[in-house]
Write a structure and sequence with these properties.
Two copies of one chain form a homodimer. Chain A is mainly α. Chain A contains five helices and no strands.
Chain lengths: 68, 68
Amino acid sequence: MLTEKLGQRIKSLRTEKGLSQEKFALFIDMDRTYYASVERGKRNISINNIEKIANGLNISLEELFKGL
Amino acid sequence: MLTEKLGQRIKSLRTEKGLSQEKFALFIDMDRTYYASVERGKRNISINNIEKIANGLNISLEELFKGL
């Protein structure tokens, strides 16, 4: 499922940066519990929240969706 | 704003295909009024609806977000 693939991709990019879920969620000003559920693919996340995450990872949306 | 840029991109790709809003919305099984508001950038659209649109346009999400 797309939300799961996206969550895995986000998790992988976050861990590459050496950040915990907690620190990253704090950094992008997103509720930690909500963010954790996004990484688990449990949320039908909106474009504005996807953008927030992409900005936090310092990548474009195109890059975020690469290969998904 | 991202929702506006995405809406313009979707509209441009749809018109390239020579489809009306009405026909395209029907094709992807999305409410026509909702779809129209997405093209106008008025919706914080979810990933599942973005996927529906990308599938209807027969392009990847990576392609849809190219340059946005």
